[in-house]
Specification:
The protein has helices at 2-19, 26-54, 82-91, 109-118, 131-134, and strands spanning 57-64, 67-76, 124-129. The protein has 143 residues and is an alpha+beta fold. The chain folds into 2 domains: 2-54, no CATH class; 57-134, no CATH class. Strand 1 (57-64) and strand 2 form a beta hairpin. It is rod-shaped and about 80 Å long.
């Protein structure tokens, strides 16, 4: 929404600049055309930046008693949701017949961390788990 306001602001700014230097009426069309082109170029650049950012790979990291363990898994930012995260974790669980249990998945702070990822503020999703919870997953642990 603020992008639209930026576009309108730039167009209005250029028109007001022209008000203080009045010449011929046809110059108004030139001012509107030029200011629109500049504003649209800025918006196109911003849109491209947002698109590129949505293609970032978000790494999934386990934090076990302060030690970070890379799971080797990642999800694209644009697809990063709680359900997608839970599905990807299900791929590396040892016992495929029953669902893994993580206390952190019930913590309300997980939503705050998910929102940070989705807004582009973080590049890693860190799951705080215990040693017992780690045993549910099939990942190689480098010491």
């Amino acid at each position: 929404m603020w992008v639209l306001f930026t576009y309108i602001f730039i167009v209005i700014l250029c028109i007001f600049a022209k008000l203080f230097l009045p010449e011929d009426i046809w110059d108004w069309f030139g001012v509107a055309d030029t200011s629109s082109a500049i504003a649209l170029a800025i918006l196109a650049g911003w849109g491209y930046y947002e698109y590129v950012k949505s293609e970032d790979e978000i790494k999934i990291i386990f934090d076990v008693a302060g030690k970070k363990i890379d799971t080797g898994l990642s999800i694209l930012r644009k697809e990063f949701t709680r359900s997608e995260l839970m599905g990807v974790l299900g791929m590396i669980q040892k016992n495929q017949k029953e669902k893994y249990k993580l206390a952190y998945m019930k913590d309300k702070n997980i939503l705050k961390q998910l929102h940070k990822i989705q807004k582009g503020k973080d590049k890693e999703f860190i799951l705080k788990i215990s040693e017992d919870e780690l045993k549910q997953f099939d990942i190689s642990v480098d010491d």
